[in-house]
Amino acid sequence: MKVVGIDCFGYNLRYAHGEYVMSGGRAATSEIGTLVRLRTDEGLEGWGEITPLGNRYLPTHWAEVRAALHTMAPALLGRDPTKLSAIRRTLDGVLLGGGYAKAAVDVACWDLLGKACGKPVAALLGGVLQEDFPLYEAVPLTWPDEMADFVVRRQEAGIKRFQLKVGNHPLEDADRTRAVVDVAAPDTLVVADSNGGWNLRAAQIAVRAMADLPVVIEQPCRETDDCIFAMRHSSLPLVLDESILTATDVFRAKSDAGAVSINIKISRVGGLTQAARMRDLMQDLDLMVSVEDTWGGDIVSAAVSHLAASTKPENFQNASFMNDWTDGHVAGYQPRSWQGRGAAPTLPGLGITVQTDGLESVFHIA
Questions:
Q1: Is-catalytic flag, 312?
Q2: Is 165 a catalytic residue?
Q3: Least enclosed by CB within 10 Å: which of 45, 63, 154, 293?
Q4: Is 361 in a helix, a strand, or coil?
């Protein structure tokens, strides 16, 4: 199989609940997504997606992603997309960095590998261990009563895992968290996620103010070393996210930070290949695994679903279906969640059919 064409498409994804607000004034009502299609000489095509969450959440943005894809795309012509390691070496030989753009290509290659084998991606990642799995939803940062109301509404839809956006004033963040805990069902997982928004002083004040609550603290500070310092005297469980990029970071998360779980964002770590390797390492270290991405729609949700479905249930915390959070329904709103749970498509590859109607044509290389 050889790549004979690379197409890049764009589209806007609106947030389903109005405005998505994080710490530090980071907010979004819509984001710009980028889709990659690899066409082959055998008539098969593979799809990937990268949709950054704004310009200040992680070190990338939509224009940078598209520039990187345009730079790397010609090198893919004539290459076998099912040789995943060779594809990555080819891209690395063209561009230093650009991991977010490379992630979209990597997912598209997994889609093609599955279609060539006649197997869903989950089967190629070790096989389905979870026919369905729990999903979480993020609760935008606002007033405590409004965050509590959001949780009440989404509990009615079957959601039992919530990630509260905190990271501003620490005592106000404690009030937000307490308001949610008060309305949450007993079996609900509540995570207070600062997205690295607290400095050391604020993090320690917030963690101390939440000490009596049945909550998990996620990424209190931007760097792992600062998270370690902030959590030094706390017995609350710690989840790390934005500061975990490599296998070495995974080891540090457990041995130095004492984290119990890590959120793997597929695009942040460079693609499904690296995400699966890190997932396997986390399972070996008996850490809990969360699977997600920065933002996106049906393609991102499908990639997440296959990694989640092939994760050991005893080491799985939750996943996110971004197509529930956004209107990015380029594949007929598939995969579809049900009562707070998700499942991986069973057709070959990602198992979804992408429609290009209404998408912006960014570039075509053949």
A1: no
A2: yes
A3: 63
A4: strand
